């Protein structure tokens, strides 16, 4: 008889007395280690990407994949909980003090809570974000937003909860792993071994092989679908969304241009052959900050009457270091003052539409913006973050 089958038999045929199994069954072991590795990866990537500059294209790409694997953990956690409720877990050693058994139950319970709470707060954060970036799992599968109103304050709250949950999970991981090692190395009992794969079991190898084939098949299908999309990625662009974020008296004040247009041809298979030109009507600028909105079109700032247009013309487009990104360089001209800029541009799918988006920082002094009234950065920062987004469509559409 297979060892896994023997160890998983929790009920005797004679007296019908339920006995806990010696070790966790193969499905529980697979789910445990898969979820654990995914969470460790998400924690590491999350810490790394939040340390990148906001205008770093790698941060945007990593954020999208972070959302993908966060949702995957949420789905696997549901499966893991259902499986746990339907199967008897191995008993803790009877020699453990009662407080240790209680602590183990509390730790396990908190781990399950965080497996749900952290992905859910991340999902909520993406749903309420005013950027309204769609979530596409593996950059292919649409994932809906939660029915929540968009709000910067709510996004900040969910972000705080998400980050606190991640930090608490790190502490629980260390406690959980430390306790397991203590049982294995000091107590020399079966607590750690019962969750390790049974490599001598044919049943384990069959389940592992079936899982590997399923993952490989799914990954191949996603890659082929994405590759087909990329192969037809010679695209053109039209209207654009362009805005900025400026530091004013310690606050981040946004602004938008209601009239902006992009003319572009982009081939992801041959980026160097692409072109990109953007024109912004300066008089269309506005800001929710009344003080900024009342003066930003004046001569000291954009001087919309004398300089009705701001323009960017790309001089080079190249494949970026991160998948799905392009490195763009060119000349940004505001108030007839040219400045050479470069930035990463991410190409993503949003509701089956290919979208280009990115952001970069410029110094307002390079364009003589506000140097009469705000010659220093005491009240208005010199650095201004510029953000853009435009949809891409096939040339014949």
How would you portray this structure in words?
- There is one protein chain.
- The protein is of the alpha+beta class and 397 residues long.
- It folds into 2 domains: 3-228, Fumarate Reductase Cytochrome B subunit, CATH 1.20.950; 234-393, Lipid/polyisoprenoid-binding, YceI-like (Lipocalin).
- It contains 7 helices and 12 strands.
- The protein has helices spanning 3-7, 26-50, 57-86, 98-128, 152-187, 202-231, 290-295, and strands at residues 135-137, 141-143, 235-248, 251-257, 260-266, 275-281, 285-286, 309-319, 325-334, 337-350, 353-363, 380-393.
- The strands form 2 sheets. It has an 8-stranded antiparallel beta barrel with strand order 3-5-6-8-9-10-11-12. A two-stranded antiparallel sheet has the order 1-2.
- A hairpin with an 8-residue loop joins strand 5 (260-266) and strand 6 (275-281).
- Helix 2 packs antiparallel against helix 3 (57-86), helix 3 (57-86) packs across helix 4 (98-128) and helix 4 packs antiparallel against helix 5.
- The termini are far apart.
- Residues 1-17 have low confidence and may be disordered.
């Amino acid at each position: 008889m297979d060892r896994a089958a023997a160890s998983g038999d929790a009920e005797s045929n004679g007296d019908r007395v339920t006995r806990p199994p010696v070790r966790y069954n193969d499905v529980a072991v697979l789910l445990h280690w898969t979820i654990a590795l995914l969470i460790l990866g998400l924690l590491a990537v999350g810490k790394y990407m939040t340390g990148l500059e906001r205008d770093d294209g790698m941060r945007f790409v990593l954020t999208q994949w972070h959302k993908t694997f966060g949702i995957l953990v949420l789905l696997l956690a549901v499966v893991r909980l259902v499986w746990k409720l339907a199967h008897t877990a191995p008993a803790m050693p009877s020699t453990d003090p009662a407080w240790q058994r209680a602590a183990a139950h509390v730790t396990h319970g908190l781990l399950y809570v965080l497996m749900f709470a952290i992905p859910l707060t991340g999902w909520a954060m993406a749903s309420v974000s005013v950027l309204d970036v769609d979530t596409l799992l593996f950059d292919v599968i649409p994932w809906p937003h939660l029915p929540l109103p968009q709000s910067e304050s709510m996004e900040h709250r969910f972000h705080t909860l998400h980050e606190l949950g991640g930090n608490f999970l790190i502490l629980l991981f260390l406690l959980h792993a430390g306790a397991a090692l203590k049982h294995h190395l000091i107590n020399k009992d079966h607590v750690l071994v019962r969750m390790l794969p049974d490599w001598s079991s044919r049943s384990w190898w069959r389940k592992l092989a079936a899982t590997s084939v399923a993952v490989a098949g799914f990954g191949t299908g996603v890659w082929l679908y994405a590759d087909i999309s990329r192969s037809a990625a010679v695209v053109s662009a039209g209207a654009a969304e362009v805005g900025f974020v400026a530091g004013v008296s310690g606050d981040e004040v946004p602004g938008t241009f209601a009239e902006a247009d992009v003319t572009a041809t982009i081939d992801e298979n041959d980026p160097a052959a692409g072109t990109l030109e953007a024109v912004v009507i300066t008089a269309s600028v506005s800001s929710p900050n009344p003080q900024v909105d009342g003066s930003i079109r004046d001569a000291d700032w954009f001087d919309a009457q004398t300089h009705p247009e701001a323009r960017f013309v790309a001089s080079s487009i190249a494949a970026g270091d991160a998948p799905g990104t392009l490195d763009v360089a060119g000349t940004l001209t505001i108030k007839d003052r040219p400045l050479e800029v470069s930035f990463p541009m991410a190409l993503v799918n949003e509701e089956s539409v290919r979208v280009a988006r990115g952001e970069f920082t410029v110094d307002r002094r390079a364009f003589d913006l506000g140097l009469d009234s705000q010659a220093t950065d005491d009240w208005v920062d010199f650095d201004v973050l510029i953000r853009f987004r435009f949809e891409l469509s096939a040339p014949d559409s």
